[in-house]
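> call design_seq(struct)
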């Protein structure tokens, strides 16, 4: 099901009104950050094996 998350925060990064998809608990073995969140950031990149997020 597609939903809108009112407020999503990862560490110090926060975004309001993010579109998301709710999947069954067994659908993935890890968490997934989608483009509906990432495209609202100033910058995102993988650096030294870690995801760098800049708002």
């Amino acid at each position: 099901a597609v939903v809108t998350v009112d407020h999503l925060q990862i560490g110090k990064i926060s975004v309001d009104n993010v579109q998301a998809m709710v999947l069954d608990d067994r659908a993935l073995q890890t968490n997934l950050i989608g483009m509906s969140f990432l495209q609202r950031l100033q910058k995102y990149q993988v650096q030294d094996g870690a995801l760098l997020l800049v708002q």
